[in-house]
Design a protein that fits this description.
Elements: H1 3-29, H2 35-40, H3 49-58, H4 65-77, H5 91-126, H6 130-144, H7 148-162, H8 175-204, H9 207-214, H10 219-232, H11 235-257, H12 262-272, H13 275-303, H14 305-314
Helix pairs in contact: 1-13, 5-6, 5-8, 5-11, 5-12, 5-13, 6-8, 7-8, 7-11, 8-10, 8-11, 11-12, 11-13, 12-13, 13-14
Length: 315
């Protein structure tokens, strides 16, 4: 892969991260209220104005906004996310506890969504009856319109309370991930299936498919050996974009199922106006989104010879 292409993609990723950091910093500064006062302006603590002023100075809240921005940016560049005002511990400590469960849930949700999308696209393409094919092709439109929180509640009602298949109270380490994974996977699988079905229809219209069918190849054989790879490649792009939506859905899903992950940490930070934690959550989520899309951008030319030749010619 040309070095110029690689450096260009890395520079774009760094620019997106900087934009996410700057936008989140500005928006958090515009929030009404004062986190220091919310935490320490309590009659039971007995702190006077001078003590509160000293606390503000210790957290750097008394500095001009531009100095706070530069100081926070320098900290993030060195891997230090500051201190949580409410917990009184480094933000990285809270992230180290909350991030692994969220990443595990996101990975399981994305893998399940990909399997659902492939299964749905294959079933729709191989359906022998036109009405069945049309019904299967319409399912992604239904899935994409389902709210995450509603789907999670319905899964709990049906699979846990009515059927008793999955316990809600004190589930096992993996049992507790089944319903949240399904809640994440169903909405995410919809756009993947839509793109995949559209790509399959496009590839099936190519002349080489007609030639293969004329030679006696079955539809299933053509789909597996000729259509699958050509249809899956464009889906990688939308898959990378959907990962950002997956992280957002994971936060909501954790709230529905009471999981102690990034969603719980974000909820607590919003309630307490803990801007250091909120800033770190935004940047970490943006970093995960950017890294996934960067990996897709770098992997795509390796899988598609046409794009690889185009990249080499531009370099």
């Amino acid at each position: 892969m040309p070095r110029r292409y690689l450096l260009g993609r890395i520079a774009q990723a760094a620019l997106v991260l900087w934009a996410a950091f700057t936008a989140s910093f500005i928006l958090l500064q515009l929030l009404p209220g004062d986190a220091v006062l919310i935490k320490f302006l309590n009659p039971e603590l007995g702190l006077g104005p001078q003590e509160i002023a000293d606390i503000r100075a210790a957290y750097g809240a008394d500095q001009p906004v531009w100095q706070q921005y530069l100081h926070t940016l320098a900290q993030f560049l060195t891997g230090h996310f500051g201190y949580s005002l409410q917990a009184g511990v480094p933000v990285s400590q809270g992230l180290a506890t909350s991030l692994p469960p969220t990443l595990r849930l996101a990975a399981l949700g994305f893998s399940t969504a990909a399997l659902l999308a492939i299964a749905l696209a294959a079933a729709a393409s191989l359906a022998p009856l036109a009405w069945l094919r049309n019904a299967l092709q319409a399912l992604p439109s239904v899935f994409v319109s389902v709210p995450v929180f509603w789907l999670g509640i319905m899964l709990i009602q049906v699979l846990s309370f009515r059927l008793g298949w999955i316990p809600v109270i004190n589930p096992g380490p993996w049992e507790g991930l089944v319903l949240p994974t399904l809640t994440l996977a169903v909405p995410i699988s919809a756009p993947l299936a839509q793109i995949l079905l559209r790509n399959i229809d496009t590839v099936l219209a190519q002349p080489f498919v007609a030639v293969a069918r004329a030679k006696g190849a079955s539809r299933a054989w053509v789909l597996l050996h000729h259509v699958a790879r050509n249809a899956l490649l464009p889906t990688l792009t939308i898959a990378g974009v959907l990962f950002g939506e997956l992280l957002a859905g994971a936060v909501v899903t954790e709230a529905v199922f009471g999981l102690n992950g990034l969603g719980t940490l974000t909820q607590q930070a919003v309630g307490n106006q803990d801007t250091a934690v909120l800033q770190a959550v935004v940047v970490v989520s943006a970093a995960a989104f950017v890294l996934i899309n960067l990996a897709v951008d770098l992997l795509y030319p390796l899988l598609d010879p046409r794009l690889r030749h185009s990249v080499e010619n531009r370099a």
